Description:
Layout: E1 3-4, E2 10-11, H1 48-112, H2 117-140
Amino acid sequence: MTETSPTGRDFLPGNPASPPSTAATGPGATPPVVVGKAEPLPAQNGAPGGDQLARIEDKCARIEDKYARSEALLSRVEEKVEGAAGRMNEAARQSDLSALRSEVRAIADRTRGLPGSGALVLTAVITAVLTVALTIAAQRFHLDALLPPR
């Protein structure tokens, strides 16, 4: 029970700051209650706290095992994704090369129909000879008089 101190505050019996209680202090009397000092609880049969701690440790071990398996699985998935990305890049390069080959083949087909350099040189020579011949003919037959005056 609590008693009221002269200042009007409540106090607990056995508190050294509180006024002395009326408890007996003889050899057969009970010891006074000490506030603020923790004493360990007596061990009970079978130690239920130890069993609970063991269950918690087992559960932690299972969680760690699951985490390790998940981490290993994620590592394998990461390796597979990297391999697939590499194969996709290679396929894209092959596709680009295939498209490039198709374009080069189309350009080659178009240029095969064009005249070669021999034909172009022959055409240039014929054009030059005909130009000279026609110019000489126009001067001989005085065809320059047919041109309009300047």
